[in-house]
Amino acid sequence: MAKREKSEVAKTEAKTESKEVVQEIIERPAEETDSPNWTKFILSQLRPEEIVEGSFPTTDGLRRVFEKFMGTILSTKATVCDSPNMNNGGRATVTVEIIYEDRKNRAITISDGADCGSINTEAPYSVHPTATAITRAEGRCLRKGLRLQRVITADEKSNVDPQIQQIEEHAMKPPISAGQKSVIVSLCARNSIDLNKFLKSQQLDQELASLNALEAQELLRVLNAYNRGPDNKDGLAIPDSIKKS
């Protein structure tokens, strides 16, 4: 009777050991991360619902495959760098940091950033720019950690028409204000700076009136530095090439 019980225990242990070996083989990648077939191998591990149009993995899918082959994710932290507002055209910019424990029990950190707005995201995702930007940034972290090459996630993919995108991008930048124009002209005159030469030195070929407010703001920053002079903090010397002749 005792021999029979030992035999049953041995068979049970053998079955358990066999399952552990099979599980270990499943979790071990068939390709090395530096293999030219690595990206193709990882994409082949995605489920049908985790890849869009046969080429664009979802962030959820990458997260599952990442933990299967790279290690356990310990934390994911998102930081909003720029919230949607009138000045940035409703665009959100975020960074995401992922800390995971690799197979050698080391804590590894990956970070990346992404933005989302109407010019690079179609509806309905553009309605929630911060949440979409966070998902995009996480996906970028995961594909970076997985060492995927020439792959973008489904959340990064955009179907926005390039021409519409260009129009909207231009529309989101308000034109130069009358106040900005007045101060730029005044600072140039005060410091004997040739306005046209100054504009060209800032890689601007158009007339002052055709600039947008962001470009004007940058010009004012430089002109204020010229006005302070090199002997003062954050001041700059005026190049001879832009001085009035």
Describe what this molecule looks like in 3D.
The protein has eight helices and five strands, in the order H-H-E-E-H-E-E-E-H-H-H-H-H. The chain is elongated and about 70 Å long. The protein has two domains: 26-167, no CATH class; 178-242, no CATH class. The longest helix is centred in the first third of the chain and has 26 residues, at 2-27. A three-stranded antiparallel beta sheet has the order 3-4-5. It is of the alpha+beta class and 245 residues long.
Query: What are the secondary-structure elements, in order, as H or E?
Result: HHEEHEEEHHHHH
Radius of gyration equals: 28 Å
Beta-strand residue fraction: 15-25%
- How many β-strands, per DSSP? 5
Q: Output the structural class.
A: alpha+beta
Task: Summarize model confidence as the mean pLDDT.
Answer: 81
Largest sheet: 3 strands, antiparallel
Counting structural domains, the number is 2
- End-to-end Cα distance: 112 Å
Q: Give the low-confidence spans.
A: 9-26
User: Roughly what percent helix?
Assistant: 40-55%
The general outline is: elongated
Strand order of the largest sheet: 3-4-5
Number of DSSP helical runs = 8
